[in-house]
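Sequence in, structure out.
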Amino acid sequence: MSTLFKQLEPAKPAIDLPDLNTLLDAIKFNEQGLIPAIAQQFDSGEVLMMAWMNREALDETLRTGRVCYYSRSRGKLWRKGESSGQQQRLKSAALDCDGDTLLVQVDQTGPACHSGRRSCFYIELADNRVEINAQPLIDPAELYGKA
């Protein structure tokens, strides 16, 4: 754990806190320079998706208010909704106590999942069986213009 995050454990809100850049510099990005980011709908608490951010994506997200991730498959920044129109507007961002996971509370436009579902977490595992717990809101072919 970063020394800075250890020092923050007894800190009181708004007292003895580092500036934002100092804190961002202390984030524990993995070997690929990434941190997991969990997206949660700000008003309902619904967990929408998990993606990765690098420092550049995090900086852009904080600066613009539009959530930006890092696409490992494409090897570049991915501004949520750039091809589907289903954007995420940042409401708040928080790091966990170890500085190695990010929670972004967002206002999601339409489905968050490439499958056309509201949430990426629609494959339910229960009692030795698998169930689909949500239907697509939008056909993915329609969502991405592949019809």
